[in-house]
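Limitations
The structure tokens in this dataset are predictions for the assembled complex, not deposited experimental models. Users should treat interface geometry with appropriate caution, especially where small molecules or nucleic acid strands are included. An illustrative entry is reproduced here so readers can see what is and is not provided.
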Amino acid sequence: MSNVWYYVFTLVFFLFDYFILAMGLNIQYGETGILNFAFIGFVAIGSYVTGALALPSSVGTGQHYIFGLGLPFPVNLLLGGVAASGFAVVVALITLRRLRTDYLAMVLISLSLVLYDVTNNFIPLFNGADGLYNVPEPFAGVLELTTNSFIPFFAAVTGAIALLLWLVMSRITRSPQGRTFRAIRDDDVVAAALGKDVFRTQLKSMLIGSFYAGIGGGLIIEFAGSFNPTAWLPGETFVVFAVIIVGGVGNNVGMLVGSLVVETLLIHLPAFLPSIPNHPGLIEYFDTVVVGVLLMAMLWFRPQGIVPERLRKASSLGGSDHALVARGSDAAAAARPAGVAAAGPKGER
Amino acid sequence: MTADPVPAPDRTTPRAALSCDGITKAFQGVRAVNGATFAVPEGLVTALIGPNGAGKTTVVNILSGSMTCDGGTERVGDAEVTNWPSHRIARLGLMRTFQLSRELGGLTVLENLLVAAPGQAGESLLNVFLRPSLVRRQERENVERALDVLDTYGLFHLRDNRASDLSGGQKKLLEISRAVMASPRILLLDEPMAGVNPALIERIGGHILDLKATGVTVLMIEHNLNVVERICDHVIVLAEGRTLATGRLGDLRENAEVVQAYLGEVIDASTHG
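Predicted assembly:
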């Protein structure tokens, strides 16, 4: 397999992986309105736990980490997702009850920094700044994949997982539960006045989104075989935010588009460009600039994203045909709009 | 300070659907509510009136659970619900609307109503994945009912519009119809007719009387005494955070304290207007 295909499948892997991460952040921020500025921390938890569960006992490996159970592939990945969800519950219990919007965001970004510093410096946990490496390849003993065949194979596995997670997520966002998420996003006081338990609902959203974060993180360490703190600097959260804002907040398909534009084309593709002579690493620095400029341009010119959130019309909500035939008195209402329509300008306060 | 001047409830009035006793609330030293005590008779339309700053909206916020109080007790029927969170009070069948319309802007008009439907199986993810046919059937029924409510309130043709795109008057109607969708037993309306034109005032008044006819208890904050006179059976006067008087509007007009605190200027204005 030529190098070109190696690159292409690496890009395909990141396309699907960030699709998963973006769906996770989208249900928290895009659907429920929780500004989770610690998102990358949940990705890291998924990644470390997945890796540490796959690795054999740490004795004699030259690394320090907890677990070391040598669990086979899908099991460790699932537990990585569960670990991220479990941590989300703890975080939500502490923060969500009392804090809203910008205060919550500040606390969460601090949490992200604390997680980072602890992991970086407390070596017995996940090997400190060196991070985990030599993580066993999934299906290593079963499929006998070479380095070259592993990459397209695992990109396909990730694609299949992303597809499954997308089907699950669309089902959630289409359901009455999804509607309640969006009600809380639009106005949590109103949602509570309509009988919605805002805290419980936000907790659910945090739990689901963090599971997606954990799975996306677990796939990264399985793909790369290693994971260390440079991969999840607190600022990485904003790359995922850029993905969902560019793609279209509140639209699951938009997440795939955002992942393609931001993660694949702007962040990973340039890394494969030949470097500029005498300026190694310059292209990577430009990545960040380009993503920042794109993010600002999107917020200014097209805040709804490339694929905007769809309005869910009556016909798609299970309104039967006869239900949508104009009701008797509404014909009258349409004929006397004065009462309603004329109130408009005066009514706006 | 207790509300001693409040007359004992008239024996002919029905039992209280909602009552509060000695409610207090201070905002950084300002006593917004200072011992408000009253009962809202079941099945009637009651007006909550009083001069600006009397604490009317604060009382509605406390009664609906949107805000906690510092002291006093609140009852819905016989159950004490003091400082219960909003969603638990709502589940007892008490719905409220807001003074400034607060539509769920990103949702359609129809979805705004669907959110309010009580007891949705589809709000449990277990049901969404394991009992999809139950969720679908219930959703269909809720859509049907929501369309009926929209039809009643003249919003049917706007069902697929984004709620934030409605005009001010339409948003007022959406607020009320959303609360109605929740099948409330008690409805708190915070100035449902503020800032709307006379034709719409007429129409909203008609809707409130229709709700009363179906057995809903209504408590509404209202400044327009002509409206109070026409549609409200019972009036509670609030001044400086406490209950000044309760009774029929006609009787209250003869209460010197009430007239001095509030009615005097308004009666002047309305007779000249």
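Some entries come with short summary sentences. For this one: The radius of gyration of chain B is 19 Å.
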